[in-house]
């Protein structure tokens, strides 16, 4: 169950990061509200996951999934660069997250 909580926390972190950008410097009230809600959900589910998972694993997976998800949304929705170097860096992050899951069991 901890891994499910961690995936929910990670998805909420992606929403948080995206709405941080979409809030346009905290000038769009609807995005600010969604941003705060997403952050609260992300942290709550991260805490639930950390009841079972080690701190280092949970936090690294949470931030790793968040980084990859935010980068993908940036490319798809915001027209950010999808250069080979950037995609390679994202691939390395994914590999690290997978390794943490494998070694954690």
From TrEMBL:
A Gene Ontology molecular function term of the record: transmembrane transporter activity
Transmembrane segments: 27-47, 59-79, 85-103
Gene Ontology biological process terms from the UniProt entry: xenobiotic detoxification by transmembrane export across the plasma membrane
Localization annotation: Cell membrane
Membrane protein topology class: Multi-pass membrane protein
InterPro entries, A to Z: EmrE-like (IPR037185), Small_drug/metabolite_transptr (IPR000390), Small_multidrug_res (IPR045324)
Coiled-coil residue windows: none
Keywords of this entry: Cell membrane, Membrane, Transmembrane, Transmembrane helix, Transport
GO cellular component labels: plasma membrane
Family: Belongs to the drug/metabolite transporter (DMT) superfamily. Small multidrug resistance (SMR) (TC 2.A.7.1) family. Gdx/SugE subfamily.
Name of this chain's protein: Guanidinium exporter
Organism: Parvibaculum lavamentivorans (strain DS-1 / DSM 13023 / NCIMB 13966)
């Amino acid at each position: 169950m901890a891994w499910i909580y961690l995936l929910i926390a990670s998805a909420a972190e992606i929403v948080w990061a995206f709405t941080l950008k979409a809030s346009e410097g905290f000038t769009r009230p609807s995005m600010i509200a969604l941003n705060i809600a997403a952050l609260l959900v992300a942290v709550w589910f991260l805490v639930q996951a950390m009841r079972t998972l080690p701190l280092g694993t949970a936090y690294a997976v949470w931030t790793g999934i968040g980084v990859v998800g935010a980068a993908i949304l940036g490319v798809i929705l915001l027209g950010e660069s999808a250069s080979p170097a950037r995609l390679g860096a994202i691939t390395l992050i994914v590999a690290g997250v997978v390794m943490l899951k494998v070694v954690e069991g």
